[in-house]
Amino acid sequence: MLDRRHALGLLALLLLLFAGCKSDDGLEVSSTYDPLTRFPAQASYAWDDAGSKLPTDPRIQALDLDPLIRGAANEEFALRGYSEVAAGAPNFLLSYELTVRSWIGPDKAISTASFSLLLSEATTGRHVWLGFARAPVQIGLDSAERGESIRKAVAKMLEQFPPSQREN
User: CATH assignment of 2-157?
Assistant: First the structure.
């Protein structure tokens, strides 16, 4: 029994080490927005540190994902005219949440990472845009590969950002 528990623990450790989302195979992405919100072509945002969440699992914390997530989001939002501000009053607040869910069954084990970006109005705190990505966890990637996987997921999430507010 100890050997099985040890093997399951090792398997869970390997599966839970969030290593990024698959770029084309298994990556599910969606986004939604408040249609009453005006999304200008250029705007500013600040990171909402209190709203950003990573799993408390020390194995995931050891991957130092926060700078990878923020770097990818900052790059992709900048390409769309939205810039991070360190001081002053931003138009929006940006936060993220990452969760990892694992299922271990008699025949197989599955681990899925879910990642969301949330944009809120800075003045009201009202949620105005949400991007969501989910993919099977990949193991064995180094930090650069994890960063690239996160960047690809964020880029795909933001493909239609800022939202078009005109009917076609």
Answer: 3.30.160
